[in-house]
Design brief:
about 110 residues, two-stranded antiparallel ribbon, 4 strands
């Protein structure tokens, strides 16, 4: 059985007998939160993560990080920069911030009549 920290959701394998009937105060090793772990709050072991399958339905091994790095290195050798599909950071901003600041300043200054 597992107990789960209510603060950071880290789970810990535990023997329910160690909790006793009324529960026991425990402290999370990760976030240091202290809580009362009760036997009725314990959960079953989480389900294993399903393996990825190939086109034929057979379980495929997880991708090798080294292979991914090598593929990225080959792309860089081709001289092509990586393509990033994201909007520019300044999308929708005025073309010239200085011009806008000046216009705002001019609008704020009262005209004097003499």
């Amino acid at each position: 059985m597992f107990i789960v920290c209510p603060h950071c959701t880290t789970s810990y394998a535990i023997d329910l007998a160690t909790l006793g009937m009324a529960g026991r105060s425990v402290r999370c090793a990760r976030c240091k939160e202290v809580w009362l772990a009760r036997p009725e709050d314990a959960v079953e072991a989480p389900a294993p993560v399903p393996a990825m399958a190939d086109a034929a339905g057979a379980a495929a091994p997880p991708p090798d990080p080294a292979d991914e790095w090598e593929a990225l290195a080959r792309e860089e050798e081709d001289g092509q920069p990586p393509q990033v599909d994201s909007p520019p950071l300044a999308a929708g901003w005025p073309e010239d911030a200085a011009e806008q600041a000046q216009a705002e300043t001019e609008d704020a200054e009262p005209e004097t009549q003499g």
